[in-house]
Amino acid sequence: MTQPPPPIFRLRPMRHDDLAAVYAVEQAAYPHPWTEAVFLDCLKVNYCCWVGEIAPQIVAHGIMSVAVGECHIFNLCIHPQWQRQGLGRQMLRHLLALALKRNATTAFLEVRTSNEGARALYAAEGFCEIGTRRNYYPSGKGREDATVLARELTVFYHDSGASGS
User: Fold this and answer.
1) Annotated catalytic, 122?
2) Options 122, 129, 136, 144, the catalytic residue
């Protein structure tokens, strides 16, 4: 008996008509999700907003700004049913390749101190801890610290889909 082929994960720019699906992924993944209005604002100000699809469903999204030689990854989210399958790594590498093409030399992001899976991914992708933002995230017990991570973008990620916005 042969295994079915793995599902195809396709990355593309986020559109306004994706917002309901993006928000559904955000709600499934986080106890304190961004609002649809925040995603709309990210589109309005032309941040790099991407979705990941496993047809016909959106299962991931990534939001990043690039300016003055730096990129800041604001949100990288994978639906819980698709986590730990390499999709977050693919989205992260795609965003970093885009940033490099836009002349960014350094990438920054914040991650919940308690999010061990995401922290392991970022460490494996070359991010280093550079600080802590106290009480940055809301949590069930009040507030939670964010670990601030950074990495130099000296290595180009081979990502054939990294053209575009």
Assistant:
1) yes
2) 122
